């Protein structure tokens, strides 16, 4: 009896937490802009479907080169980010290092690309650094967590005078080497998605080809781009073999070196750091004059009230609705991958659908939905909900498959198995995974503003186009603070509703 009561309270807390998110989403629904564009979405969807069903590979040479560049940007960016994260991981426990990693990974790759283009232009350097900078913060965090979860006894057995680096390399790192290699492969898959999306800001990856063909209404060529992209992602574990990694990386570096790189303007970096990002009132005024600071206060308040707060509100509305949609997609999607529930054919089709939804970047999904429904919050919510829901459903499906193996031979099947056996057992994992994806959804909601949806990314893009880098930096800081706040709230909520083993399992997933 004593062990049952806390479990019931914990389950009640989990259900109550889910209801809070659903109720909050329902309260925000009237404030969401779901207006359809001026065109007929179903007619546009029909034209798009007609083209997608007849892929046009006439530009296969150009698409093949775009695929090669997608891989090379990803490999160089992930390699550089992993190297930096590897160097930062031993020091992640120190507050300045941890805050630095949080700051760089809370800003999306597209935002980094837009900022870097002000310094390095539209070049290979921009693409590589746009991936490497946020990935460095991610790698440092994940590797530090792997190290902390390892057996502490080897480190304790080191000589008392052993320095931090020696303890790291000889006592802690060997215990996490296998997990880090596995995560490196997963992060490379993420890097391929990030590399493809960078094409939407002009870099010559598959995203650039997709954007070009969409604007020209060439839906057959769009289908060809998507097929090449899915084949690239789907076969990655076949062609990415450990002995070939040095060969691939060397080839990627050679390809990047052969790309035309516009020379950086003399003093561009110094001007960016000392002039462009400095708020306009401080740039043109005397810092010793109180009037300068009064002008700066007015400038900052106008920016916050006129752009940052409306953009932040739209970002949080999109994120909250997308989170609930992702949860719904996960609950409905994961049983479709379990043969005892959906049947063998249904499970195979369910796996294919989830692979497509989770392999397609949110930004790319939102871009496609934007062509159908027009510029509103609807494409953003649909894209974020489908992508993140598919990721959660995939992980829950794998967990459910393991659970089913441990059930009785005469266990029920179909909807009864789902409702009475699987769902109660994996509900805690479902909620923990949703909370893990919450911070990512907020981050992605901000970047979708680059498509014209008035989230924070919309105002950042407008400031960049107006060459007001100082305003863009302030808006990016607001984006970073919002992401950090959501991450903190998510961790606190997980700690309150999930036992330690559940939190660790979700983190590993």
UniProtKB/TrEMBL annotation:
Major localization listed first in the record, in broad terms: membrane
Stated name of the protein: ABC transporter permease
Recorded topology in the membrane: Multi-pass membrane protein
Keywords noted in UniProt: Cell membrane, Membrane, Transmembrane, Transmembrane helix, Transport
InterPro entries named among the record's database cross-references: MetI-like_sf
Transmembrane segments: 12-32, 62-89, 110-133, 213-232, 244-261, 308-334, 417-438, 444-460, 472-490
Taxonomic superkingdom: Bacteria
Subcellular location(s) of the protein: Cell membrane
Protein source organism: Paracoccus acridae
């Amino acid at each position: 009896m004593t062990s049952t009561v806390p479990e019931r309270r914990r389950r009640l807390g989990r259900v109550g937490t889910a209801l809070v998110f659903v109720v909050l989403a329902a309260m925000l629904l009237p404030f969401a802009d779901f207006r359809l564009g001026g065109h007929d979405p179903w007619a546009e969807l029909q034209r798009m479907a007609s083209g997608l069903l007849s892929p046009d590979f006439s530009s296969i040479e150009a698409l093949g080169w775009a695929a090669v560049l997608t891989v090379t940007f990803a490999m160089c960016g992930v390699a550089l980010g992993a190297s930096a994260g590897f160097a930062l991981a031993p020091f992640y426990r120190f507050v300045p290092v941890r805050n630095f990693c949080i700051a760089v990974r809370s800003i999306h790759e597209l935002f980094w690309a837009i900022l870097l283009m002000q310094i390095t232009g539209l070049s290979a350097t921009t693409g590589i650094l746009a991936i490497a900078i946020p990935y460095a913060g991610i790698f440092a965090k994940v590797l530090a967590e792997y190290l902390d979860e390892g057996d502490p006894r080897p480190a304790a057995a080191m000589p008392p005078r052993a320095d931090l680096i020696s303890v790291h390399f000889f006592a802690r790192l060997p215990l996490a080497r296998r997990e880090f290699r596995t995560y490196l492969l997963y992060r490379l898959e993420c890097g391929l998605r990030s590399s493809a999306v960078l094409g939407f800001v002009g870099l010559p990856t598959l995203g650039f080809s997709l954007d070009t063909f969409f604007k020209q209404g060439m839906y057959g060529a769009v289908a060809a781009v998507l097929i090449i992209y899915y084949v690239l992602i789907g076969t990655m574990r076949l062609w990415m073999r450990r002995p070939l990694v040095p060969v691939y990386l060397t080839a990627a570096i050679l390809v990047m070196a052969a790309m035309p790189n516009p020379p950086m303007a003399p003093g561009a970096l110094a001007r960016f750091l000392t002039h462009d990002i400095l708020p306009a009132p401080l740039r043109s005024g005397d810092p010793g004059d109180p009037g300068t600071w009064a002008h700066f206060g007015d400038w900052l308040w106008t920016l916050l009230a006129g752009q940052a707060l409306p953009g932040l509100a739209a970002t949080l509305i999109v994120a909250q609705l997308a989170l609930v949609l992702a949860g719904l997609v996960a609950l409905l999607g994961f049983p479709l991958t379990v043969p005892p529930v959906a049947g063998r054919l249904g499970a195979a089709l369910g796996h294919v659908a989830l692979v497509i939804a989770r392999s397609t970047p949110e930004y790319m999904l939102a871009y496609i939905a934007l062509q159908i429904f027009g510029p509103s919050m609807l494409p953003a919510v649909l894209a974020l909900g489908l992508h993140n829901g598919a990721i959660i459903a995939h992980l829950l499906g794998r967990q459910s498959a393991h659970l089913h193996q441990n059930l009785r031979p005469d266990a029920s099947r179909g909807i009864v198995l789902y409702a009475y056996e699987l769902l109660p057992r994996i509900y805690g994992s479902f909620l923990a995974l949703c909370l893990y994806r919450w911070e990512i959804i907020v981050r992605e909601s901000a970047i979708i503003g680059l498509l014209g949806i008035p989230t924070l990314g919309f105002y950042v893009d407008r400031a960049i186009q107006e060459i007001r880098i100082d305003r863009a930096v302030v808006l990016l800081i607001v984006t970073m603070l919002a992401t950090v706040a959501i991450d903190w709230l998510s961790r606190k909520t997980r700690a309150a509703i999930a036992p330690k083993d559940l939190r660790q399992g979700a983190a590993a997933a």
